[in-house]
Amino acid sequence: MSARLEAALHAGRLELVASPHLKGPQSTVRIMWTVVATLVPVVAMAAWSFGLSALLVIAAATLGAVGTERLFGQGGSLADGSAALTGLLLGLTLPAGVPLWMALLGGAFGIGFGKLLFGGLGQNVFNPALVGRAFLQAAFPIALTTWPIPGQGWSRWAGDTFALPLLSGGADAVTGATPLGLMKFEEVSTPFRELFLGTTGGSLGETSALLILLGGAYLAYRNYLNWRIPVSILAVVAGLSSAIHAVDPAGFPGAPFMLFSGGLMLGAVYMATDMVTSPVTNAGAWLYGAGIGALVVLIRLWGGLPEGVMYAILLMNALVPFIDRATQPRVFGTGRRAAT
Amino acid sequence: MITLLDGWLKGGFRHGVHPPDHKEATASHPIRRMPFPDEIVLPLRQHAGAPARLLVQPGQRVERGDKVGEAQGYVSVPIHASASGTVTGVDWWPHPDGSQAEAVRIAVDPHSAQIPRPRLVPRWDDLNPDQVRDAVKDAGVVGLGGAAFPTHVKLKPPEGMAVETLLVNGAECEPYLTSDHRVMLEHPERVHFGIRIMMQCLGTSRAVIGVERNKPDAVARLRATIPDDLDIEVIALRVKYPQGAEKMLIKAVTGREVPSGKLPIHVGTVVQNVGSIAAIAEIFETGYPLIERIVTVSGPGVVRPSNLLVPVGTKLRDVLAFCGGLTPDAREVLMGGPMMGAPQGDLDAPVLKGTSGIVVLTAAEAKPTRVHPCISCGHCLDACPVFLNPSLLGKEAQAGRYGDMVEHHLMDCMLCGSCSYVCPSNIPLSQMFALAKGAVRREQQRAKEAAAADGPGGGKAA
Asked: Which A residues in the span 116-145 are in contact with B, Cβ-Cβ below 8 Å?
């Protein structure tokens, strides 16, 4: 035995590591890739609704994001999966017919200007996927608001998928309005069943509330997202819109429509819960979610745009440092509960 | 039902973590006495407070139980020879904390029967509290839970402060460790006797023993042996790390929070580890000082996990050898449990009075080394038992902003390691906090010395 012990010592096999010497099961890499995995059904639903174009758009956005991280990010940072997740989420906020080069550019912009410029993972203030999306919306408003109609079959290109940069495409896809657009500009409402299952027009990931909720529930169960954020967003949207609907039932939609239309589900479950850009305290999570919910209702009902989830989240992202500062936990043995 | 509900409400604190406890490796192993090694090494610094003052010279013969070091001041205790033999030297020797310490080396006499000199067993009920405290100090008793704080100091509450409850800490929340568990199981009467002595010293009439629920046999044994004339309650606590931290135990049992920067006495409690209480009882049962202690040797890197009665000063090497040695994939040797234990680089370092366990981990438990950036997931906030914001403190530590850290209650951190345990990015948070706390303490010390030197009573002119 002694010989073996000596051997162990001389081979330098005994390690000196600071305590604690045990490590819990959570890992950043696993968190990121699990979130990606829960998005697979949502991507599949997008493909089923909008055909191959959907997959190509999502792939292009992801390629843009991952390629930019690879070129300009820190060595090995691709492995943590956060860039792939950003690209995937960006892709899901785009319409199916958007030219692929735009999706690629959006992914590159989101990672480059939304994340790497701040110093990479953990340093950014704004959700990088939404930065990419906001950039695209500002740069190409027409392409970003042209909504192909779902269910036209696999192989039919949903729009200007293969358009070259800076040229206007020539394809004449069948397009229509989103439920929110219909509500806002034509005062037509969409049946709840269609909204819930996702057989409506809209962005790729805006469609199936059901799949998004299932994914979110799993992530909350694994503690990979703070459930307080989606719960507070959805509760405030539901409460506010119900109250407004009660005052003027003809002029404003009720809670079910508000909850299940547009990007609210994807935003509440996958975008607002981005750990880096949401509050670190639980009290802060409630505040932040409530703020997003209120802004969504405000923009949707009285703003110039039919949808407001993106701007609501970006605005609240900017407030996160202040929210965190204002909601520091009460330290054990201080404040009112400390015995004196 | 009422008792169940009562137990649930009482037995917990907020936050904390749930590492796998791995107690099964040794929980059912009775305490065995380890044979005397060839050499004993007794560092003069093995308790909180001032190191002991050397009493022996090389070449001198010592009997088991003789003093080799005398207490220096009030917060200090003497150190006794744990085996009969000859002092071969007083050298700098590897200390389990990673430094070197002045230590008395004793070549153990192979022919000695190792029977301590017969000594007078003090009849404790004839003694007044001061005499009991002196006897405890003279026997070198310190907290055996790990911090090794001299016990006689705890036996004297500060002037004008009353002790409502004596809390006996049998939580043993560190994974792998079972030494307290075995004491409660094998020597419950001794625990109760120690409690009786402490209660009398402290002038308190109520004691509560807190034991985690993963030791139901210990709870039952303790309950079954409570003396009729003592008000002792045994509470089964929720299994959660760090349940055995003083403040967490007090919160779980009394519902009160010890104010930041204050001591348990401020909420009317004194906390003592169950093993230390048994050690107090032992002085008055046998007359022997604290010269041996129960050590759990466990972990997947040890061939034969055991609970051993080890002479203080036995080298880790000898203890591990007695347990069959290390497995080929052994990677880390720890003194203490895996959450707060100190890594050992030199197995010549000896078992101290405060050594509750030796845990050997293998490559399978070794932490992943790749550190990712903080993604502000907030898991550390949900884990911190004293409700700090480790995420923020970690960022401040990396920027060297120790002043901001102090403002954000760095000094309330007990280095329990819960934040590092849950961190998905493997950020060594508690290690950074330990460094920061050390730096802040040194800075405070310097400031104090500077103030003293500048003051009118400073004496020395610059």
From this structure: 120-123
Average of per-residue pLDDT values in chain B: 90
Q: How far is A158 from chain B (nearest CA, A)?
A: 37
Chain B residues with CB-CB distance to A333 below 8 A: 247, 257-262, 386, 412
Domains of chain B: 2-28+122-286 (3.40.50.11540), 379-445 (no CATH)
Q: What is the 3-state secondary structure (H, E, C) of chain B?
A: CHHHHHHHHHCCCCCCECCCCCHHHCCCCCEEECCCCCEEEEECCCCCCCCCEECCCCCCEECCCCEEEECCCCCCCCEECCCCEEEEEEEEEECCCCCEEEEEEEEECCCCCCCCCCCCCCCHHHCCHHHHHHHHHHCCCECCCCCCCEHHHHCCCCCCCCCCEEEEEECCCCCCCCHHHHHHHHCHHHHHHHHHHHHHHHCCCEEEEEEECCCHHHHHHHHHCCCCCCEEEEEEECCCECCCCHHHHHHHHHCCECCCCCCHHHHCEEEEEHHHHHHHHHHHHHCCCCCEEEEEEECCCECCCEEEEEECCEEHHHHHHHCCCECCCEEEEEECCCCCCEECCCCCCECCCCCCEEEEEECCCCCCCCCCCCCCCCHHHHHCCCCCCHHHHHHHHHCCCHHHHHHCCHHHCCCCCHHHHHCCCCCCHHHHHHHHHHHHHHHHHHHHHHHHHHCHHHCCCC
- Chain A residues in contact with B392 by the CB 8 A cut-off are 280, 324, 328
ipTM of the complex: 0.86
Give the global pTM.
Answer: 0.89
Domain limits, chain A: 29-176, 201-327
Give the A:B interface size as CB pairs under 8 Å: 196
User: Is B330 within 8 Å of A13 when comparing Cβ atoms?
Assistant: yes
In tens, the pLDDT along B228-274 reads 999 999 999 999 999 999 999 999 999 899 999 999 999 999 999 99
